[in-house]
Structure formats: structure tokens, C-alpha cells
């Protein structure tokens, strides 16, 4: 029994000391979060985002595009035009979608998806390497001497996926300079956001797992440096959490700490703006939306995003529960956020006074100097 306990404790220590794991946003952890974005704006209509946006059944129609450009930062999804294209030529449709979005709203920002663990045939750049005999060592290999193959489910049908072999410098060079680098060279794109397969790569011995992810981190850091050098933003679809009555005060203090760090971007989750909000007991939809916006305005720094939830695979932006308050002009902050009493937070903006009382789970956004009505919930 004693031996068993010792072995369990040793295993737990190993888990604590290991690399961060293969989850969404893993590469940002050693940096403390997402970097600040290069356009850093306090304007609310440039501070909202949603990821995996776009229709699989074809290119987005005018109504869908119009809904998407309400966002400040549109994350085009891998599923765009997936069915008509027979899951191919994604890079071409990303460019087309970005062009159409910017024609509707020239100041909208657009990002495209790249993966931190696996590749599949959607991306022409990846397809070419997956089936080229000279680049089979780009992938994690299985015992049969072939790339370990998984399945990526897509609306047009399942596709094969291979895991990046980050221990291979040739793969790293291609992953950074072509797979990601070509997106950073596109003038229509303002950033790159990341996803993962979100599980440990196959056939990596446990003794080598930490070293393998350390190699991946080195590659990821190179990608971050490249994205920054091109004046673009790197992010992922994970977030810094949402607020509830139980977590409100502690969450605010945490968000305010991130907001004070000019090298980071706060990205909070606006769960009540999605099409399938899971109601909180005794909290109305309007109350949750108002409190979320108030919390964001109080806590944020000049680089911050209010993220609408990722849903489905994937739902129309028209189905989201958009609030006009996400487009109001609050001006710029006057001073820093303040906890004026236990659990009561205040910040003044040039066009608004914002108060969030976590004890009552209630907020006030009092507009001034504008014709926009105030919101008290």
C-alpha cells in the first residue's frame, strides 16, 4: 500500500512539472495570456470577436456578412464553403471572405485559423505536404512507418489528419514560414487564431512527451514573433472566463489585473450573447448581458476583446443574441478601475459612468454627452 501511494504521489508531481498540455491556447500560457493587439482600441465596435465564423454550405450571403461585421474582429472558420469545395482550397476562400467583409465595413478586423497540433486537407499548403513522399517525416509516425492518422469530422465528410512532428526542424520551418507565414503576408488578414486537436499526440513515449511539447513551444514562440513582426495579432478561442453571481467579485479583480498589464489582451466570454445561453438562476438575459458589458468596460485595458461563445459546428452569426450596447460609443476611460467598496466596481469613461455591484449582481451604464439611452439592470 505504501509503495502504491508513493507511486501515485510521484505521478502527480510529474503532472505538475510537465508542459501545459494539449488544450486550446496552450502556447500562450508561458506568456501569461494573449499579447496586446497592434490596433489597440477602446471603441466597443472594435472590441468584440467571435471565432469559427462562416457557413459550410457555401460562401456567406449578404445577411450573414452584415451580421458578422457587427463584430470588431471576425475569426473566419475552417468550415467556410466546406461542402461545395469538397473540403479543399481553404486559403482561397479565406481571402475571398475577408475581402467581402471589408467591402461591407472597411475597418473590420479579420483573422484566420491555423492549428497547433494537426493538419488536414482543407489547407492546400498542408495537403501538399501530407502526401508528398519527401515530407512524410513532417508528421508523428506510427509503428508501421507511416504518419499516425486521425479523423477530422467536417460537414462535407470526414478527412484524415496528421500530427505535426515538432521535433523535426524542417517541419517547424514549414509550419512557421508557410502554413502560418503565408497568412501573415496577406494584407486582408489582421491576425491568426489557433486551435488544437486537444489531446496528446499518438505514439509519443511518455518519457519524451515533455520534450516534444517543449519543442512545440519553441515553434509556437517563433510563430508569435513572426505574427507580431507583421503587425498582426495572435489569439485563440479560449477565454479569461465569464461572470456569475458566485464568481463576480473575484473574477473582476482577476480581469482588472490583466487589464492593467499593457503587454496582454484580456479576452472575456460574453456567454449571454450566444444563441444558446444557459440561464443562471434568478438572472435575466438582459441582466447578464448588461453585467458582462459593464464588467468588460471596467476591467479592460486598451487591448481587449469581448468574445461571443463558439457554438455548433458552426451556427450563423444571425442566430446570436446581439445587443445594441455592443456598438455604443463609450469614449475612452478616465482613470483606472476602482473597487469603491467590497465587491462594488466603478470606472468613468468620457461618455459613460459604469458601475457593477457584485453583491447585488446588478450594473449601471449611465451614458452622457450622447443621445444613446442609459442601461440600468
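^ C-alpha cells above, recovered residues below v
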Amino acid at each position: 500500500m505504501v509503495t502504491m501511494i508513493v507511486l501515485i504521489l510521484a505521478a502527480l508531481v510529474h503532472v505538475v512539472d510537465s508542459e501545459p498540455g494539449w488544450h486550446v491556447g496552450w502556447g500562450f500560457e508561458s506568456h501569461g495570456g494573449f499579447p496586446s493587439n497592434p490596433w489597440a482600441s477602446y471603441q466597443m465596435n472594435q472590441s468584440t470577436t467571435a471565432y469559427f465564423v462562416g457557413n459550410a454550405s457555401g460562401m456567406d450571403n449578404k445577411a450573414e456578412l452584415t451580421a458578422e461585421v457587427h463584430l470588431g474582429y471576425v475569426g473566419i472558420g475552417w468550415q467556410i464553403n466546406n461542402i461545395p469545395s469538397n473540403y479543399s482550397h481553404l486559403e482561397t476562400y479565406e481571402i475571398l471572405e475577408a475581402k467581402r467583409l471589408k467591402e461591407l465595413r472597411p475597418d473590420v478586423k479579420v483573422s484566420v485559423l491555423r492549428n497547433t497540433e494537426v493538419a488536414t486537407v482543407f489547407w492546400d499548403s498542408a495537403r501538399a505536404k501530407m502526401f508528398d513522399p519527401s515530407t512524410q517525416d513532417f508528421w508523428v509516425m506510427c509503428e508501421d512507418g507511416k504518419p499516425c492518422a486521425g479523423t477530422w469530422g467536417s460537414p462535407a465528410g470526414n478527412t484524415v489528419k496528421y500530427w505535426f512532428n515538432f521535433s523535426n526542424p524542417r517541419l517547424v520551418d514549414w509550419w512557421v514560414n508557410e502554413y502560418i507565414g503565408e497568412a501573415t503576408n496577406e494584407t486582408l488578414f489582421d491576425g491568426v487564431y489557433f486551435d488544437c486537436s486537444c489531446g496528446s499526440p499518438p505514439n509519443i513515449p511518455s518519457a519524451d512527451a515533455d520534450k516534444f511539447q517543449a519543442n512545440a513551444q519553441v515553434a509556437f514562440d517563433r510563430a508569435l514573433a513572426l505574427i507580431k513582426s507583421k503587425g498582426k495579432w495572435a489569439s485563440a478561442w479560449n477565454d479569461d472566463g465569464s461572470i456569475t453571481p458566485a464568481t463576480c467579485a473575484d473574477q473582476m479583480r482577476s480581469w482588472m489585473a490583466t487589464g492593467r498589464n499593457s503587454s496582454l489582451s484580456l479576452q472575456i466570454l460574453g456567454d449571454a450573447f450566444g444563441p444558446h445561453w444557459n440561464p443562471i438562476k434568478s438572472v435575466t438575459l438582459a441582466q447578464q448581458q448588461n453585467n458582462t458589458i459593464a464588467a468588460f468596460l471596467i476591467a479592460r485595458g486598451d487591448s481587449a476583446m469581448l468574445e461571443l461563445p463558439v457554438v455548433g459546428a458552426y451556427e450563423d452569426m444571425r442566430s446570436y443574441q446581439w445587443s445594441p450596447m455592443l456598438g455604443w460609443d463609450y469614449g475612452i476611460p478616465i482613470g483606472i478601475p476602482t473597487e469603491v467598496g467590497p465587491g462594488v466596481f466603478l470606472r468613468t469613461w468620457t461618455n459613460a459612468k459604469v458601475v457593477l455591484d457584485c453583491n447585488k449582481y446588478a450594473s449601471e451604464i449611465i451614458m452622457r454627452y450622447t443621445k444613446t439611452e442609459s442601461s440600468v439592470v
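Residues 1-18 have pLDDT under 50 and may be disordered.
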